[in-house]
Design a protein that fits this description.
It comes from Rubrivivax gelatinosus (strain NBRC 100245 / IL144). The protein is an alpha/beta fold and 227 residues long. It has an eight-stranded mixed sheet with strand order 1-4-3-2-5-6-8-7, sandwiched between helices. The N and C termini lie far apart (43 Å). The longest helix is centred in the N-terminal third of the chain and has 14 residues, at 23-36. It has one domain: Vaccinia Virus protein VP39 (Rossmann fold). The chain is globular and about 45 Å long. It has helices at residues 23-36, 47-51, 67-75, 88-101, 113-120, 150-159, 173-184, 206-213, and strands spanning 37-38, 57-61, 80-84, 106-109, 126-132, 160-170, 189-190, 219-224. α4 links the parallel β3 (80-84) and β4 (106-109). Helices cover 35% and strands 19% of the residues.
Length: 227
């Protein structure tokens, strides 16, 4: 892996992985992808046209296999949700959830989240942004690849509507500490003295539940854009 990308190769917070997709994921991608997967375009999207209504929009970055995304969307039909993920298997898995649950308030963009925020999301247009369990990049020489960095947080802040929130969660304490430091120095305001309680509406993932049973910690951070 090249740890010193050239200016033409920006540092990414992810590494594209290979891997086989299940038949259900492949079928969902073929049948539902054309309707629910949005092409990346270098211009702000029209949320009302995309979803066919005017509603608060939340952006989720790195939704993995989409379990939590589907649960959040099903529990809050009055909100629209855009999931951003680079891995095809995850996109197929979320599409399968969409089909099984009949979710009409979810759309997917398979592209780099920084570019999506910068180019596809208009300033002050989002009700919220979720960054749940991003890659902690454990090794010190890889910390520059962590998604939660000052420039990224200010980009998120610029896309949040006044009163909008950024909700991060991690099970890696050193990353939680970095998140708290970065977010506390940003233009966003903390909703807690330090770390927040897990909101009841954030689903407990299987991985997270197993970690909690083993005594592992999980840290939530919820910051808002001042009104």
């Amino acid at each position: 892996m090249d740890d010193n990308p050239s200016p033409q190769r920006p540092i990414r917070s992810y590494v594209l992985r290979g891997g086989r997709m299940g038949t259900g994921q492949q079928r969902a991608l073929a049948e539902l992808g054309p309707r629910y997967v949005l092409p990346y375009t270098a211009q702000p999207m029209d949320f009302a046209a995309t979803f066919g209504r005017a509603a608060p929009v939340v952006l989720e970055i790195g939704f993995g296999m989409g379990d939590a995304t589907a649960q959040v969307a099903a529990a809050a039909p009055e909100r629209d949700l855009i999931g951003v993920e680079v891995h095809e298997a995850g996109v197929g898995a979320l599409l399968r959830h969409i089909g099984e649950r009949g979710l009409e308030n979810v759309r997917i963009v398979r592209h780099d989240a920084v570019e999506v925020l910068r180019e596809m999301i208009a300033p002050a247009s989002l009700a919220g942004v979720h960054v749940w369990f991003p890659d902690p990049w454990h090794k010190k020489r890889h910390h520059k690849r962590r998604l939660i960095q000052p420039a990224f947080v200010e980009l998120v802040a610029s896309r949040l509507a006044p009163g909008g929130y950024l909700h991060c969660a991690t099970d890696w304490q050193p990353y939680a500490e970095q998140m708290l430091e970065v977010l506390s120095a940003s233009t966003l305001a903390n909703t807690a003295a330090a770390y927040a309680e897990r909101p009841a509406w954030r689903p407990l993932t299987k991985f997270e539940a197993r970690g909690l049973r083993l005594g592992h910690g999980v840290w939530d951070l919820v910051f808002t854009r001042p009104r």
